[in-house]
Amino acid sequence: MATRGFLIYLLSGFSVAILSVLFINKNNNMNHNSTLLQYSPYLSTVDKVWPELKLNWRLVLATVIGFLGSACGTVGGVGGGGIFVPMLTLIVGFDTKSAAAISKCMIMGASAASVWYNLRVPHPTKEVPIIDYDLALLFQPMLMLGITLGVALSVVFPYWLITVLIIILFLGTSSRSFYKGIEMWKEETILKKELTRQQETLVNSRGELLIDTEYDPLVPREEKSELQILCFNLRWKRLLVFFTVWVLFTVIQVIKNDLVACSTWYWVLFCLQLPVAVLVFGYEATKLYKEHKKRTSTGNTEAICEASIQWSPLNIAFCALCGILGGTVGGLLGSGGGFILGPLLLEIGVIPQVASATATFVMMFSSSLSVVEFYLLKRFPIPYALYLMGVSILAGFWGQYLVRKLITILKRASLIVFILSGVIFTSALVMGVVGISTSIEMIHNHEFMGFLDFCSSQ
After folding, report:
1. Residue-wise over 1-20: b if at least 16 C-beta within 10 A, else e?
2. pTM to 2 decimal places
3. What percent of the chain has pLDDT over 70?
4. CB of 358 within 8 A of CB of 132?
């Protein structure tokens, strides 16, 4: 019921916002060749603004914000692009196009460090890899397809509409994640009280063990070295599929960028991404559906993967839609798409540790695709990108380390959910303030506020 209400909230909010643009289009006859494009994350028409990399208060503040944003973002599995882009434009002074490109570099660095750390960590409850490769393979192609769609929409959508849609989405997902965190916190509290009560029944008031107490024999868990855990967590066949999909999307994007916008070959390559994504998604979805149907017919209630949902056609279609939506948000913002994927994994029953590890794993591939593309297009200064990526790598590793230690001490995995909710809510506030102030400035300048033509705006 809560999920259905959340979807109704998103659909109604998005519908009202888009209908408002159609109304403005009918009542706004101003020149389409406005300076609106300077605010698009990917298609800024202003000159490049690349500040020099030197020690000053701007660099120090950006380092602190970047470190905290990367640490919290990777722990929550959301990346942090909603914080990085405003930071790079308002504090450091980059133009929005370069800021979006460097943001991708930071997300890639933090995600790679987080994945490396997680590969050396065992699953908290089962003898399975901590990264759910089934779910990752299900969402990765749809996420990459959504990023392509998001970049295209960032050309057409007016800046104020992107701001409104992001605020609606982020407030909804952060509220839903916070509510999920409270539920988990209550369950953990009950569990801790029950464990304390069981321990008390085993010991009398003088601290002596009661010999007539029944208890299960202890079965020690086999201790594994970091190398053994690393080898166990790696699934080479699955990684080969991920890499193949990544290469196909990267090659298509690189070739497409060298073509004339809206030419025949441009649209051929643009549409070629759809069958690639659908083929991989369809293979994984069919596998999950058949396995779920087989287990249901035999009375086996064990989950196929980390998600606790039933893999019906409706739920599979819902996952595909959310994957595309997550990628679209990533394309509009210059983020990795984790703002949707992280909360979604929690919503379908994945425990926080696995949700964080799986989301960052998928983001590593999606963000690195954009980094390669931006590098070939020379859209970011390499020294600044390397510096901030180094900060993000350290933050991603130490963020995972410290939070995992806290979870072990406090025995509360809900901390990850609260961090995720906090990062998304902070991104909503930052993007909202920046977006509203920019939109007000555009209104004062009498700029065009409706939909733009895709081909003429390239």
Report:
1. eeeeebeebbeebbeebeee
2. 0.82
3. 83
4. yes
